[in-house]
Amino acid sequence: LHVANLLKADGKGEAAKEYLRQSIVKSPQIPQLYVFLASIEEEEKNVVAAVSTLERAYARFPEDEKVLYYL
Questions:
Q1: 36 and 20 Cβ atoms separated by less than 8 Å
Q2: Which residues contact residue 47 at a Cβ distance below 8 angstroms, ignoring those fewer than 6 apart?
Q3: Residues 5-56 pLDDT 10s
Q4: How far apart are the first and last CA of the chain?
Q5: SS (H, E, C) the chain
Q6: Do 16 and 8 contact (CB within 8 A), yes or no?
Q7: What is the C-alpha separation between 67 and 56, in angstroms, rounded?
């Protein structure tokens, strides 16, 4: 998450999103990856992508409070 946050802070939103997507493939059990990816998508006004990401997270983590909060 820290690398993605640094990329985002450096204005490299696309690189941050790609890093998070790759991280989700490697570690799909970490709900924070989905939430952070969705937050970047939302900041970029891509609400459809953000909702899709959160729906994928909800399918995997229906009891996770952060996923429920952001969805």
A1: yes
A2: 41
A3: 999 999 999 999 999 999 999 999 999 999 999 999 999 999 999 999 999 9
A4: 20
A5: CHHHHHHHHCCCHHHHHHHHHHHHHHCCCCHHHHHHHHHHHHHCCCHHHHHHHHHHHHHHCCCCHHHHHHC
A6: yes
A7: 10
